Amino acid sequence: MTRSHLVAGLMSGTSLDGIDAVLLRVRGTGLATQFHQLAYLEKPFPTGLRRLLLRNSDPETSRVDEIARLNFLLAELYAEAVQALVRSAGLRLSSLFCIGSHGQTIQHLPQPHRMLGRRVRATMQIGDPSVLASLTGVTTVGDFRVADMAVGGQGAPLVPYVDWLMFRSRSMNRLLLNIGGIANVTVLPKNCSVDNVIAFDTGPGNIVVDSLMHEFYGKPFDTGGRTASSGAVSLDLFRWMARHPYLRTRPPKSTGREEFGRDFVTTLMRQGREYDREDIIATASQFTAFAVYDAYKRFVSKRMHAEEVIVSGGGALNRFFLDELQRYFAEARVRLVDEFGVSSDAKEAICFALLANETLAHRPTNIPAVTGARRRLILGKVCRP
Prior knowledge:
Layout: E1 5-11, E2 18-27, E3 34-44, H1 49-55, H2 64-88, E4 96-101, E5 104-115, E6 118-126, H3 129-136, E7 140-142, H4 146-150, H5 159-167, E8 174-179, E9 182-188, E10 198-204, H6 207-217, H7 226-230, H8 235-242, H9 257-260, H10 262-271, H11 277-299, E11 308-312, H12 319-328, E12 333-336, H13 347-360, H14 368-371, E13 381-383
Parallel strand pairs: 1-4, 4-7, 8-11, 11-12
Antiparallel strand pairs: 1-2, 2-3, 5-6, 7-13, 8-9, 9-10
């Protein structure tokens, strides 16, 4: 795979706001990987889809018939996103080498659960990659998480392998922080090998603030962090949030809507009913930044002193998050991933494009020290058109 080829990457995350699609020209694999971004677009979800996904992410309200249909519907939306992406670059679908698609998580259950005498972990991403391959005529790699879980891993986070490929440094200790629905951090000590990488989810990214903005204002997110900036942090409410047991859980660990979704937000609103809306949002925003720093102090600082914190994801557009992160990480420089020529918005989609490229090169991309898996293995299901 020494010649360059075109790879599309797709990501739709816990924010449930739409599809990120990126087109890359990729050359090489592993440490020899080089890529150039040709196009990027965001395709909003159609009206009503977010509500359906939320309903079917909750065991109390989900329906197996709706999940089955959503599995096909999302694949159709992904196919439309890829078609629009390729058109925007003046190309045809037939020019694509492959598509890497994360899918839409509706359940992520990394902790073993006793079932019929066995201990079972599980995760489910819908938007079937086989349907996507059939609709586009392009080889598609999807369902990246399940193989890692099958050998005792959390199935997440998967981005750290690509973080290592892109951002390892001979001279700088770096934290790669992605603030999507959930915030996750990759720890890259200077001169690290892939076996030296650690990474984990720190807690909520945008998920709690987005939910509060929807409940209070009917808006999808806090644009620029302006609502949080207009409020005052409640110490009582903050202390309650900071007692969440996930913060004390040692890595490897991952989390999602199951921990910080509807039930958490409902309880938060009840706990904060005496406060103004903007104060609750300021407190939840503060908690996102605090959880990142708390994780660093608990699990990272004894082995590595961070010199740079490189931020990506939708939360990179939230000035309140960035200011609070810089306050916490006073001795490190907080930077946006865009400064390194990588789009904050596109980064996760880029990761799944590159993971697909590695899968088709038969390269393992999970990191056992990160996920807890018993061994390294090739991730993803390869679906031919």
